[in-house]
């Protein structure tokens, strides 16, 4: 006989736990099902361990700035990847404990370890146990994608999901895929002393879309590691190592890190039982504002939805799916202003409308070189470029940033888009001195010149009549 | 015979140059008068050289974080204040050249080197040359204040105006005055290896007003240098050094850095000729929204106005005075949201309404410890506290931050106050993961619990009806 639950949540990662927190405000008759390693992708294999690696690489890289400012003895500094990876795992264990504890709190009625499989849109089978569900939330996450023809490389091929499990890494490393993960990890390992070469079919780095940003990204990040873009790559075993072939180049590396995307964890779910078509990612389409699949009582949330594989978006989707799984009416929720950060040196950030989605015939573009920013000059971190986009009325639409502290400036500007801020209104905000944010003002001024007749006075508040 | 000018600007610093840029959009018959060293206070003796000193101190201090993350050899790092000061002057010269160049461009008709003195509100005497002025803008800046009883200490007493001219500094240093300048310089020199002791009559550090912030500031910055607050200090020469006496303590130092405030540069101006009373700072009161002195054709802009001695405020006052000096009607301009940053480690920042100006009976206070922020934890920079203030309707009023990256977070939040953002509306902004900005969300959540019945769902956008 099957048990009846109001809501079943499949997956105890960021999205699933967010759905859980929402659902249990409305009903006690819920079930969380998880078959894999506990802890979120973010804490286990994603954001947190990569930040730990990047932080150490950045501190080691700091020796060049130390030396340039008269600090002597930097030639004695050294670091071993083995020690760095141990620290990464120690950091990771701290953060996975924090998230995994949430599932420990749940009773047997509320949490089931096992693999869920759809018998019908509202019927689940978990290792033989049957459940009749008011609603189901799919939040199973993703895993690193490895093309089948490369799987024979065995232990010589690494992906982010198990990279941080390595006790050490060999000297020569190839990175295939220069999106956020490949670029972050590849550059950090290059800074730690590895000989790293990067290859990508696409020209874009770290998800950048703006050609001006991509060019400067190649110039700046290219100082850390050679990057070959626009090439298909062929990998083949060669002795203990891997031979990489791309364009007319061939190079041998010890290991290759493959970061060519992530694939939804849906193999065990029997999604065919939902009776709806699956998209090219192998999941049904869902509405980003409701997280619902068609008009089924089935919702999909987090990375597995393939909307935006980012932790803060996954948490939102979990909450939206959670609300809609228990409320009488399906409601559409407004999503947050898009924001994406790649933690390279310099960082790459996008916010608001992406360059690829702009109507360039009606867009006013502003830019500022970080080389001209006094504070960035003093810190020796003044490589980079800021590009901002507005419409003809001056409304800020979005931007791409390539600079130190891009993570902070992208928040600053994304939070202005929420308020429908214009080039003029942002110029009337306080800019302290000396700060890197002054580069934003420089970029806005180039836009003000194109937008406003009174551009030279637009920075001062409209006078209040006395 | 006197020459007639539409506007005379006294002082070629940040405020004066800003006034100049404004005025010359309206008239060519203007005169800039400056008697001192060219270049702004900011570039010569203020923001820029101090940031240069702080940057080197921070990079040297980084060796502790390098060591804690497995980087070996940090015991070989060393730095000499002599070299650091040389670099500071090299940075400074770069920035003063940039600002001083503006006055080089001006013709003899537009720029006069000399000391201006009022004969009457609209009459100036510059070293014997007489000018009849449509309006006068006083933008003469300030200089470090040294109480007369300490002037006999001679070269053993240092102030920020000539600190960076020293070729080297002795080992034991006292700092009198723990506002922004004293605290920044004192901590940086302590990090460079000096034995520094700080004393202040007031308990506040770096201008902090919130008692919770002040307490944590003592705990964190106190690790760099011992600080004795709440004491009058007596200084007296003692051999080659200085004896400092405060409370029941007496200690000997080689030199003492005095940072007890700045005093307006008005000694030569003969302000009595304006026929208006002078305030305790020795300048006439002026309206911060018009920069006008009473109903005289005389305006006062920048640090000398003693409104807010900050570079970005000085530039605004220069512009406001500039507009009002040439336009038929005097207009009031809205000032920017207050923002102040002290570049210590951790940084101290205030934005919006200060703690001292809050009505605590109607204020909702939220806070978050940086120790709980994952990203700050990874970077080893997780000492600090965030305090935010809202009214009972949830409107963000202001806040004080004590943390790494406070400069960025203070911009982020000040720019929300401009839009009348509420605790709920800010919670609906995108927070990336993992970033230090997530600590702001933690603080806002503590406020949401006090403010909203639906606090657990307030973070998600109001649903859009389908």
Q: In short, what is this structure?
A:
2 copies of one chain form a homodimer. The first copy, chain A, is an alpha/beta fold and about 475 residues long.
Verbal overview:
2 copies of one chain form a homodimer. By secondary structure, chain A is of the alpha/beta class. Chain A folds into 3 domains: 3-36 and 114-144 and 263-326, 3-Layer(bba) Sandwich (FAD/NAD(P)-binding domain); 148-260, FAD/NAD(P)-binding domain (3-Layer(bba) Sandwich), CATH 3.50.50.60; 339-451, Enolase-like, domain 1, CATH 3.30.390.30. Chain A contains 12 helices and 24 strands. In chain A, strands 1, 2, 3, 4, 5, 6 and 17 form a 7-stranded mixed beta sheet that branches. In chain A, strands 8-15-9-10-11 form a 5-stranded parallel beta sheet. In chain A, strands 19-20-23-22-21 form a 5-stranded antiparallel beta sheet, sandwiched between helices. In chain A, a hairpin with a 4-residue loop joins strand 19 and strand 20. The longest helix of chain A is centred in the N-terminal third of the chain and has 24 residues, at 81-104. Chain A is globular. The first copy, chain A, starts with a strand and ends with a strand. At the A-B interface, helix 3, helix 4, helix 8, strand 18 and strand 19 of A face helix 3, helix 4, helix 8, strand 18 and strand 19 of B.
């Amino acid at each position: 006989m099957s048990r009846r639950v109001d809501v079943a949540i499949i997956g105890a990662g960021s999205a699933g736990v967010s759905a859980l927190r929402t659902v249990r405000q409305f009903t006690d008759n819920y079930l969380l099902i998880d078959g894999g390693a506990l802890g979120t992708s973010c804490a286990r294999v994603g954001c947190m361990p990569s930040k730990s690696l990047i932080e150490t690489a950045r501190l080691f890289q700091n020796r060049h700035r130390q030396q340039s400012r008269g600090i002597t003895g930097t030639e004695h500094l050294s670091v071993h990847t083995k020690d760095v990876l141990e620290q990464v795992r120690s950091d990771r264990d701290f953060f996975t404990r924090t998230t995994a504890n949430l599932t420990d709190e749940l009773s047997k009625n509320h949490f089931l370890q096992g693999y869920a499989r759809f018998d019908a849109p509202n019927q689940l089978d978990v290792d033989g146990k049957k459940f009749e569900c008011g609603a189901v939330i799919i939040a199973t996450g993703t895993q690193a994608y490895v093309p089948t023809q490369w799987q024979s490389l065995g232990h010589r091929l690494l992906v982010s999901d198990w990279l941080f499990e390595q006790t050490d890494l060999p000297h020569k490393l190839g990175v295939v895929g220069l999106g956020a993960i490949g670029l972050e990890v590849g550059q950090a390992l290059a800074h730690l002393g590895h000989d790293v070469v990067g290859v990508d079919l696409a020209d874009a780095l770290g998800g950048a879309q703006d050609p001006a940003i991509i060019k400067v990204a190649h110039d700046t990040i290219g100082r850390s590691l050679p990057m070959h873009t626009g090439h298909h790559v062929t990998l083949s075993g060669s002795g203990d190592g891997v031979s990489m072939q791309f364009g007319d180049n061939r190079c041998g590396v010890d290991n290759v890190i493959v970061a060519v995307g992530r694939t939804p964890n849906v193999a065990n779910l029997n999604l065919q039982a939902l009776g709806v078509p699956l998209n090219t990612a192998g999941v049904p389409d869902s509405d980003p504002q409701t997280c619902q699949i068609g008009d089924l009582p089935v919702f999909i949330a987090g990375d597995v939805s393939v909307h935006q594989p980012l932790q803060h978006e996954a948490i939102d989707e979990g909450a939206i799916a959670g609300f809609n799984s228990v409320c009488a009416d399906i409601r559409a929720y407004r999503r947050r202003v898009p924001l994406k950060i790649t933690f390279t040196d310099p960082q790459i950030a996008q916010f608001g409308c992406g360059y690829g989605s702009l109507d360039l015939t009606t867009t006013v573009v502003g830019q500022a070189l970080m080389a001209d920013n006094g504070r960035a000059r003093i810190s020796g971190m003044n490589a980079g470029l800021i590009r901002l986009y507005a419409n003809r009325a001056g409304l800020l639409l979005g931007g791409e940033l390539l600079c130190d502290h891009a993570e902070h400036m992208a928040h600053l500007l994304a939070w202005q888009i929420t308020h429908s801020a214009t080039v003029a209104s942002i110029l009337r905000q306080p800019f302290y001195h000396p700060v890197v944010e002054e580069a934003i003002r420089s970029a806005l001024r180039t836009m003000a010149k194109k937008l406003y007749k009174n551009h030279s006075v637009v920075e001062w508040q409209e006078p209040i009549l006395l």
